[in-house]
Amino acid sequence: MGAGISRLAWRNLWRNRRRTLIMLAAVAVGVWAMVFMSAMMRGMVDEMVRSGLEQLPGMVQIHQRAYRDDPSVVNSMPSPEGTLQAALAEPPVTAWAARVRVPAMVASARASRGLTLLGVDPAAERALGSVPPTISEGRFLEDEHDRGVVLGQRLVERLESDLGKRVVIMSQDPQNDVADRGVRVVGIYKARLPGDEERFAYAGRAALQELLQVPGQVSEVAVMATDYRRPQALVEHLARAAGPQLEVLPWTELDPFLSSMLDLQDGFSLVFMVVVFLALSFGLVNTLAMAVFERIREIGLMQALGMRPGLILRQVLLESLYLLLLGLAVGNGAAWLTIKPLESGIELSSVARGMEMFAMGATLYPALYWRDMVLATVVVLGLGVLASLIPAWRAARLDPIRALNSH
Amino acid sequence: MNITGLLAWRNLWRHSRRTWLTVGAMVFCNTLLVFLIAIQLGSYRMMIDNTLSAFTGHLQVQHLGYLEEQKMRQTVPEAAALASRLAEEPHVEATAARAVTFALASSEQRSFGIQLTGVQPALETQVSSYPGLVSRGRYLQQGDDAAIVLGSILARNLKVAPGDEVTLLGSGYDGSVAAGVATVVGIIDSGLAEVDRGVAQAPLAWFQQVFALGDRAHSVVLRLDDVNRAPMLVPQIQASLPVGESLVALDWDQLQPGLREAIRSDMVSAWFMYGVLIVLVALSVLNTQLMSVLERTREFGVMLALGLRPQRLGRLVLLETIFLGLIGLLLGVALGALVVLYFDAYGFSYPGMAEAAARFNLPPRIYPQVSLLSLFLGPLTVFLGALLAAVYPALRLLRLQPVAAMRAV
Questions:
Q1: Which of A308, A322, B270, B365 is the 20 to 30 Å CA partner of A69?
Q2: In degrees, to the nearest 5, what angle opens at C-alpha B93 toward C-alphas B90 and B96?
Q3: How far apart are the first and last CA of chain B?
Q4: CA geometry: angle at A44 spanning A42 and A50, to 5°?
Q5: C-alpha A393: how far from its chain's center?
Q6: What domain range includes position B382?
């Protein structure tokens, strides 16, 4: 009997081919839009998180407790050693770097600018992935004793300086005296977000420690790990190793904007899917109601011949289920086919400066997650069957005598 | 109502449940579109207003090339006089001259590199939102000399409060070392990290003296009676500038190119979503109208046999769709307007929005824009989409053969 019902439902679906195809198109367009839009949003947020983590940098940072409130060289910490160093050598840590990070002035003969000066160990930064992506002229720092500086392209233009020229860097030592030194521009970098080129300059870590008279001291330790979505366990592990003097924080707390974007996006995907489904549901209910209406006499006859209402209900639901499954297959397939070719990146340079406001580069990489396809499928099937209950219920409750006598 | 209209109206109610379901799809979509578009336009307007009043103003006069290079020497001569002259131009509500440089600010305990702006205190109040955001102390006043207001995060980093002194060290207009000491008179707390970390303002006259600028400044900022007028006003302002000084008038779009691009990219994704909703509604209408045409094939055959012209049948179906669409339009706009008016009174917010909003200079609550455009743009598009969807069923009627049609089951 079960097989008979499903065959009946399938054949019924194609009795009015045109209507079924239109509804199928509607379901497919809806599902395609759900998955396509989610992939775009994922790509956007992934990109934001990626560049956010690059800029912080790291998924977890360790500071002296007062540093975040008062980012001065006074509040620096010793370079990791002992248990902390051992903890940083274990998985899930993939890379870490200790850096001096101080507010500073850079002055050329023509102009001066305030920025954040990073004293880095180039090898560690490279492992962390937080060196500038492009060195347009010269070279990056050779090692932490390198006495040159690497400046951003835009900063060099604003300072009217150039590769090989000297600039003066000024910052503050722990005694609050101005420490300054003339240094040579050894490299010029380009950042993914052009605004960063004016915000950050790189110097050798040991050279900067010497200038500021803080040997062995650093401002922050940036830690990269395998999965950015779950930093909490790592934070607890590192906090135990670091001791009470130091503060260990995940990126979600260091940059609340990023984590709120991530949460917003999950919520938004679901809301968008439900909204699209609701727009779809009117047509779905309508189609099924029409199909039932046309077959009133037929349903009455089946009931008169002894078919139980439950089977009629099941038959209408099956018809709807087939329609939804076909629509899902076509919609998901179309989404996969349209997103795959775009995964190499969509060029958005015409709105690059706008994308920078979203903390994004000028290329959008859509990201198709299985999770989103599954979510769209669950939403459409779950709510779809729920919506089909109304016409199916009505069909099952028909009075056979009246149904047989309707026009 | 003529006979075709009457017929169309009555046909609509032959299957009242089907009609209401189709109308329901339209009303749902229209209400949603009215709400989304009003919120969208409202947030764009707030984003533009907040960004411009915090940073650039509606229009600026600068030295040619200053926008890109921001060099100390690219100045506007006799800036204060030019500002008061430009204030007389039509549609210009207020003007103020500003000078900008970078300096090392040192308090007793800390030093930071900052961007220092010299402003005309009395005039700045009319073009910028900062004076209203002072949380401690006061804003600069006319007659202040060596005074400075700082952003709240900057003040915290420098460990200063109103009454403390800050030493500023930079380079002057002539390339010499410039140094000055100013007393903190107020702290600005805007809630926007970028502003609170960066802003530092001192009186223009003192600024010009310390940095050896004479009567020069770097820009004259204009606030207009209507922000939308800025592009039209550029030529007029440009024409009134002194010749031979290489000065240019720039509107906010040139000063803040990211703003319009951010709005444009946001619009693309929003219209993708609207487009999907509209297509779904159109498909729903197509389905309904096609069914209603197919089930009446015999009836139409009879009408044709009685001498009705096929064009008239096509008009009938289109008219039915117009009625259908109008009901959806009116109900949707009415319902949408109710929703929008509610949020106009109480503001719109959702959990987690505040952090994201602050990034775009938006307050934590967004107020929708209530206008004819925001109310009707979406529903009218849906209406047109529905009409377009009915074209196919209507065209089918033109090919109908009376005899074959009357025999159809």
A1: B365
A2: 115
A3: 32
A4: 95
A5: 43
A6: 3-52+259-407
Closest by alpha carbon to A218, among A95, A87, A86, A121?
A121
In this structure, the answer to whether residues B120 and B187 fall within a common structural domain is yes
Is the separation of the CB atoms in A179 and A119 below 8 Å?
Answer: no
Among residues 129-148 of chain A, which lie with CB inside 8 Å of chain B? none
| Residue B379: its H or E element | helix B372-398
In angstroms, what CA-CA distances link B50 with B94, B190, B254? Answer: 17, 11, 17
- Both B89 and B47 in one domain: the answer is no
Average the pLDDT over B8-33 and give the result. 90
The residues in A 27-66 lying below 8 A from B, measured between CB atoms, are 29-30, 33, 37, 40
Residues B325/B13, Cβ–Cβ less than 8 Å = no
Q: What is the C-alpha to C-alpha distance for residues B115 and B104, in angstroms, rounded to an integer? A: 9
The neighbour count for residue B144, using CB atoms within 10 Å, is 19
Residue of B nearest to A265 (CA): B352
Residues B79 and B104 in one domain: yes
DSSP one-letter code for B348: B
Q: B154 and B93 share a domain?
A: yes
> CA of B280: which chain A residue's CA is closest?
A26
Residue tagged 């990034």 (tokens): B359
Quick one: what percent of chain A has pLDDT higher than 70? 99
How does residue A236 score in pLDDT terms, banded at 50, 70 and 90? Answer: confident
DSSP state of A226: S
Enumerate the β-bridge partners of residue A222.
A61, A97
Same domain (yes/no): B203, B69: yes
* B91: CB partners within 8 A, 6+ apart: B224, B225, B226, B229, B233
- One-letter amino acid at B240 equals S
Distance CA B289, CA A253 (A): 55
Cα A186 off chain centre by: 35
Give me A63's structure tokens.
């500071």
Question: Going by DSSP bridges, is the β-strand pair A149-152/A178-190 parallel, antiparallel, or unpaired?
Answer: parallel
Structure tokens at A86: 């051992």
- Percent of chain B residues past pLDDT 90, beyond the cut: 42
Q: What chain B residue is nearest to A276 in terms of C-alpha separation? A: B277
Q: What is the ipTM of this complex?
A: 0.79
Contact by Cβ (8 Å): A269, A41: yes
Are B87 and B133 in a shared domain? yes
β strands within B107-195, DSSP E: 111-119, 134-137, 147-151, 165-171, 177-188
Closest Cβ–Cβ partner in B110, B284, B360 for A286: B284
Contact A226, A88 (CB under 8 A): no
Pair of tokens at residue A52: 């956010």
Assess A221–B contact: CB distance below 8 Å, yes or no: no
Q: How many helices (H) and strands (E) does chain B have?
A: 16, 10
CB contact under 8 A, B69 and A157: yes
Q: What digits encode the pLDDT tens for the residues B312-349?
A: 888 888 999 999 999 999 999 999 999 999 999 988 88
Burial class (CB in 10 A: 0-12, 13-18, 19+), A243: exposed
For residues B229 and B287, membership in a common domain is answered with no
Q: A358-391: b or e for each residue (b if 16 or more CB lie within 10 Å)?
A: bbbbbbbbbbbeeebbebbbebbeebbeebbbeb
Q: Does B288 touch chain A (CB under 8 A)?
A: yes
Of A190, A254, A174, A179, nearest to A221 by C-alpha is: A254
Q: Is residue A407 very low, low, confident or very high in pLDDT (cuts 50, 70, 90)?
A: low
E strands in B40-162: 59-63, 92-106, 111-119, 134-137, 147-151
Phi-psi bin for A65: left (phi > 0), alpha (psi -120 to 50), beta? alpha
The encoded tokens of residue A119 equal: 């004293």
Query: Please, are residues A116 and A104 in contact by the beta-carbon 8 Å criterion?
Result: yes
Q: What are B337's two structure tokens? A: 């307007």
Instruction: Report whether B89 contacts B226 (CB < 8 A).
Output: no
Q: Which of B202, B219, B245 is the last residue of a domain?
A: B245
